[in-house]
Design goal:
The two termini are 31 Å apart. The chain is elongated. It has 6 helices and 3 strands. The chain is 62% helix and 7% strand. It is mainly α. A hairpin with a 6-residue loop joins strand 2 and strand 3 (70-73). Strands 1-3-2 form a 3-stranded antiparallel beta sheet. Helix 2 (29-35) packs across helix 3. Among the domains are: 11-73, Winged helix-like DNA-binding domain superfamily/Winged helix DNA-binding domain (Arc Repressor Mutant, subunit A, Orthogonal Bundle); 107-137.
């Protein structure tokens, strides 16, 4: 997937993207409206407007071969959230360490979060060490 992520999505756009990511297959606008009916009281044309905006931004593409267009994400969920995290760090002028520290200081963090973060940091440390060793040997 070509994943050039340039701008933040609105809440409605993000909800559509989450719907497309979780579906794992292309969806018609009417299907998206149905799946988001608990949160939005959209009609299909409203979803089309937002989907076309997502297409213009390069986040979504459409299979226009049939009568009903089917929409699918062009970027992954992971790539979007990684770009937004990096964007937040840049925008606030804070370091990644500061951002993580502020998240840890909240009451929202769980034991499972701490274990997962520790595992991620260990994995990243190993990757960095392996890169350094590869650079010294090559």
């Amino acid at each position: 997937m070509g994943e050039k992520i340039t701008e933040r999505l609105s809440d409605a756009e993000l909800d559509i993207m989450r719907t497309l990511w979780s579906a794992g297959l292309p969806l018609k606008a009417s299907e998206i409206v149905r799946l988001l009916s608990g949160k939005y009281s959209w009609k299909t044309p409203t979803a089309h407007v937002i989907l076309n905006r997502l297409c213009d931004k390069g986040y979504v593409n459409a299979d226009r071969s049939g009568y009903s267009h089917k929409f699918y994400p062009v970027i992954t969920e992971e790539a979007y959230f990684a770009s937004q995290s990096t964007r937040l760090v840049r925008r606030t002028g804070r370091s990644i360490r500061d951002m993580v520290a502020s998240l840890i200081d909240t009451d929202e963090i769980t034991d499972d979060d701490i274990i997962a973060l520790s595992d991620m940091l260990d994995k990243k440390r190993t990757e960095i060490e392996n890169r350094k060793q590869g650079g010294e040997n090559g």
